[in-house]
């Protein structure tokens, strides 16, 4: 039976993109194909600005689990007082290094809708309910369709214009975090005003100080 390496599993609200504010259980898969996650490798990483800890399995509810164990965890986490449909977000790292059809099918049978946040280098299993793709400069881009394209901006050598004809329903610019965040917010706002296809995505979970 397949065992998945999971950094953490926790109930929160989506902090960015189209579903900002939506209650969701985040399942963060360990590992990524664009960076080891280790500081010693950051400078040579494709997305060396990444701000996520996806190394190991030592986060809340982390571990090496089969799908039945994961389902048990998410069923316990989803609070009966939540009015919206049960929803998980599979993220990373890069979730599509591990996420397979068996995972999707059994989580659906447990009553949850599934969203993924991916870098677009891998093709997902069938029947994902929400696909959010975040392209990275220098990475192979294979997933040119989905529900939401969320481009961290600016990335040198990667223009929003490259993606405007791709098969997505929603297009977001998300200002790159870091020392230039305020400048990047202003650049993103300016671009969205001049190009109405694109909308602004802020990392509201950071603004509010939640996970």
In short:
The chain has 211 residues and is α/β, with parallel strands linked by helices. It has helices at residues 67-77, 101-109, 181-194, 204-208; strands spanning 4-13, 23-29, 63-65, 87-91, 113-118, 130-133, 148-153, 170-175, 198-200.
Overview of this structure, please?
This protein is α/β, with parallel strands linked by helices and 211 residues long. Helices cover 18% and strands 24% of the residues. It has helices at 67-77, 101-109, 181-194, 204-208; strands at 4-13, 23-29, 63-65, 87-91, 113-118, 130-133, 148-153, 170-175, 198-200. A 9-stranded mixed β-sheet has the order 3-1-2-4-5-6-7-8-9. α2 (101-109) links the parallel β4 (87-91) and β5 (113-118). The chain is globular and about 45 Å long.
Q: What's the overall average pLDDT, rounded?
A: 95
Point out poorly predicted stretches.
Answer: none
Please provide the count of β strands.
Answer: 9
Helix content, binned percent: 10-25%
Radius of gyration: 17 Å
What topology, given as strand order, has the largest sheet? 3-1-2-4-5-6-7-8-9
How many strands, what sense, and barrel or not for the largest sheet? 9 strands, mixed
Strand content: 15-25%
What is the ordering of alpha helices and beta strands? EEEHEHEEEEHEH
Structural class: alpha/beta
Q: How would you sum up the global shape?
A: globular
Give the CA-CA distance, first to last residue.
31 Å
Number of helices: 4
Task: List strands and helices in order, with pairings.
Layout: E1 4-13, E2 23-29, E3 63-65, H1 67-77, E4 87-91, H2 101-109, E5 113-118, E6 130-133, E7 148-153, E8 170-175, H3 181-194, E9 198-200, H4 204-208
Parallel strand pairs: 2-4, 4-5, 5-6, 6-7, 7-8, 8-9
Antiparallel strand pairs: 1-2, 1-3
